[in-house]
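User: Predict the structure for this protein chain, please.
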Amino acid sequence: MRQKSPVPFSKKFPNADPLALRLLERLLEFDPRYRITAEEALAHPYFRGLANVDSEPSMKPISKFEFAFERRKLTKDDVRELIYREILEYHPQMLREYLQGADLSSFMYPR
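Assistant: Here is the predicted structure, written as structure tokens:
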């Protein structure tokens, strides 16, 4: 994809508050290294008087390891098993049968 120069928001929205436009630019920054965080956005001058950063809850960013499961290569059977286990979460009797290793469950998924 060829690179294209951005059109300044001030040209697109000439009547908008310059602080709002600057905040929008920071929120929509393509490179995540330069993108504003939620905490920084709440502290932005545009929200002065609306948000109290000291009283807002904040957390450390979630570790990338929390999403390691998304990088796992799954076979068709793996996906089928994961879907079946999700179904079991909503059907306690079937879950008990599954955990007991019952061959004849009240529901059989196709192979």
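The radius of gyration is 25 Å.
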